[in-house]
Amino acid sequence: MPQELKIVYYVEPDAAALARRAAQYFVEQAERAVAARGRARIAISGGPTPKATFSLLADPAQPWRTRMPWSQLDLWWVDERCVPPDDPDSNYRMTREAMLDLVPLQPEQIHRMEGELEPEAAATRYESELRHSFRLEGAELPRFDVVQLGMGPDGHTASLFPHTQALSELGRLAVANHVENKDAWRVTLTWPVINRASQVFFLIGGADKAQILNEVFTGPRHVERLPSQLISPVGGILTLLLDRAAASLLPAPDAQSCGVLERIE
Ligand code: 6PG
Fold first, then answer.
1. pLDDT for 1
2. For ligand 1, what atom is nearest to the CA of residue 149?
3. Which among 182, 253, 191, 198 is positioned nearest to 40, based on CA atoms?
4. What pLDDT is recorded for position 264?
5. Ligand 1, atom 12, residue with closest C-alpha
6. Which fold has domain 13-264?
7. Among 19, 21, 34, 259, which is most buried by a count of CB atoms within 10 Å?
8. What predicted TM-score, i.e. pTM, was given to this entire model?
């Protein structure tokens, strides 16, 4: 049956305001999950964009650091580059430097993808950790409270790159994915896992994303070329946190800087 996807986007004036909006969003979603279930299970992405948000969350001079229910969080990654955890390319390293070293999270709350392992082994180990931690049985998928995604200028999200094997993976929780044009391996959550989350949001900033953002969300469906179009959360709502430069080709938002697009899946 066709499902309707509501894409709700919020537009901030610049990168700094976008980082603040995202920090606020993370805290609100974590509080909501903790109030409902006593725990917040969050999966985060890499790349340069979320770094400013992670730094704000960790900053004692900012309100979010005090509000975040750190002791009730479980932190997971959406994807990882296949490099050791201290490599400058490691998503884990970026997050550790921006946030983890500065906040009261215990090692058992931090579930990193082991990029230093052989890629398939790293994916299998991550999958086992997910099964164990979410107490999954059989073909069950984990349900994250919040998944934060980014989008590359080629339309990739997580490490679901255009025309790669991982796009057709429906049964696994995490897979190794070879990205030919980067000549690199990645480990990534699969898109059915991302879509099962309670809340999924994209954090996207910068003029270089305007064109692809518009194409992904208002253009025809072509998931092999635009893997971000695979993201369609089961709850029927997808949130986009954007800066003005990234949102410049989308329909103008309303007076509250909010816009809505609808798509039939
Ligand atoms: C990664 C990612 C990736 C990222 C996009 C966008 O490891 O690179 O998790 O999917 O989110 O490439 O990154 P930026 O928003 O930082 O450009």
1. 66
2. 11
3. 198
4. 87
5. 152
6. Rossmann fold (3.40.50)
7. 19
8. 0.97
